[in-house]
Amino acid sequence: MEMLTAIWxxxxxxxxxxxxxxxxxxxxxxxxxxxxxxxxxxLHVASAAWGAYAAWxxxxxTKTPEANIRVDLLFIWPILxxxxxxxxxxxxxxx
Length: 95
Prior knowledge:
Layout: H1 2-8, H2 12-32, H3 41-63, H4 73-92
């Protein structure tokens, strides 16, 4: 858990890179398999959620840099985990 905290908490650029990576994977796969476009919609949702988290983290860092007890992460991380896992499940499941 400490490793995840070191990567994602207080580092909006790392979170934005994750969001962009999911978006790039989605775009590449859409061009590679245009017939299965519906399978990749969940990757857009996950990418947007990570982008929203990056914006939120930037807001928290600029407005309250002294915040060291982050209760908001108790809600954000499970939602991001579920959305990302669901996106990859939809991507990898057989049609």
